[in-house]
Fold this protein.
Amino acid sequence: MQYPASCLFSPMQKGRIIQSTGSWYHVDTGDEIIESRLPGKFRLSGKKETNPIAVGDFVDFTVNDDGSGNIQKIHERENYIPRKATHGKRGRHILVSNLDQACVVQSVRKPQFKEGFIDRFLVTCEAYEVRACIIINKTDLAKKQDTAVVEDLVALYEDLGYSIITTSIHNQQSLEELKELLKTRTSAFIGPSGVGKTSLINTIDPEYNFRVADVSTSSNKGKHTTTFARLVPLSFGGYLVDTPGIREFGLVNIEPWELSLFFPEMSEPREHCKFSNCTHDHEPGCGVIEAFENGEIALSRYKSYLGMLDSLK
């Protein structure tokens, strides 16, 4: 495992967080994995985040007599993926850090994909400078009416410059495409429960047999089987973080006036807006509204934008 230059000259041991279970953190040194704790001073200083340390973080630590570790320093992150804190908590939750790319995983059916989730994920990646890709899984469950919808999705996001692939654990060619996408990179799978994130890992890398569960027949929603994020090495090269399923992807630290900055198709049209603080939902002389009316911005994307704008207001 490679470490940033900032880690190389510390007198303490160095490692990377590969798993967090709440009170304990698994630190990979490259030679061994040390179960470590985080001193209370870090927890008290993490006012903006619900978790002061995330999977993917590089750390310095010392080793106790019993073989456990004490984390002494958290290195500055190159990037990270945050989401709005849930369960009534304030601030943000860091899902994973120090990535080459983050992949949003959705399924054709069981559960059915949500374009709004994809778009919120893409906005977050744009805002936090993380390369984004899209995986539409479970194509083996696609019915006749789904085919055209998926094809339109692929065309839409490819035109916007995003990598998007369709996969099925029963389609070897699609799995080879997925392996090529992940090879040599540090990636993360992020998406709702039940879309098949863990099943994809089990299938593309025979070294792993993580627990999976069927989608609930009553709610058609996934059941939580991955309860914590974990970073694993891939036998064909690269690293992958499997994250717990999330139903909502709340935006954080984005102001209403800057939301359009993170929609690539709005970059040029917004330059023609009459007002510099235009929010592109009602103002006269709006270049984005004009572009949408001329068919230059997809209806689904503009609806996603308006939905996000309303939540930010």
